[in-house]
């Protein structure tokens, strides 16, 4: 019987019983829990991270003399673990013809939050709320060094945002773009836990719709125009409730409406939780949006 590899997730902060602020760390941990993959957490160091950021992992093969490899980037980590067979595939990772539409929608959702919303959040946190963000991220550094390192990070982020494009917008335009995404993400019935290790029922809603520019593939474009994610979730919720044998138990349902999670579920969960759990709070504008005014919190 083969033993599963040992995995250590380096999260950048010492918070063994709580999520950290990085949406990508939260995403990776959620993805591991979806497949019941056991792992441990540690602080780590950005200097040791292959990509210079968290999360990164150390994977130790229990059967080949304890060989250890270091992997960076949450998406690449997940892909490597799935390809090696260490991590189970989710509903949209197969090759069945009927799954092509769902795979396209899953990819579009992930790209929307990871390649667009992430940079809008970075601007809100580092440009609009610099001091709370600096003091949290660099809390382990003494104050004089915190000032110098914080200034260096700030300069790097300004350059990154300008090169990426977000930094070329006005603050009002960025707030509008961020709101356009978040307003379509509303709580309703998305099964997730705010505990980093032990899932428990916590129902959230994610509503999403795409513009006609989201895809140029005829079938997917028509689907995204006519059916928002809210409609998919509503249908999934009704189906799950009808199939439930107990009226007291609310079954989970997922962003694409299937019986199991997709990769997009982990990504969207990461971005929702990072906004909810930033205790400073470094993103007051995001907190004020309708998605965060929910009784499910």
Your description of this structure?
With 297 residues, this protein is α+β, with helices and mostly antiparallel strands. Helices cover 46% and strands 7% of the residues. The protein contains 10 helices and 6 strands, in the order E-H-E-E-E-H-H-H-H-H-E-E-H-H-H-H. It has helices at residues 23-34, 74-84, 100-128, 130-137, 143-164, 171-182, 218-226, 229-243, 263-277, 284-287; strands at residues 6-10, 40-42, 56-60, 68-72, 190-191, 203-204. The protein has a 4-stranded mixed beta sheet, covered by helices on one side. A two-stranded antiparallel ribbon has the order 5-6. Strand 1 (6-10), helix 1 and strand 2 form a beta-alpha-beta unit. Helix 3 (100-128) packs across helix 4 (130-137) and helix 3 (100-128) crosses helix 5 (143-164). The longest helix is centred in the middle third of the chain and has 29 residues, at 100-128. It is globular, with a radius of gyration of 20 Å. The protein starts with 5 loop residues before the first strand and ends in a 10-residue tail after the last helix.
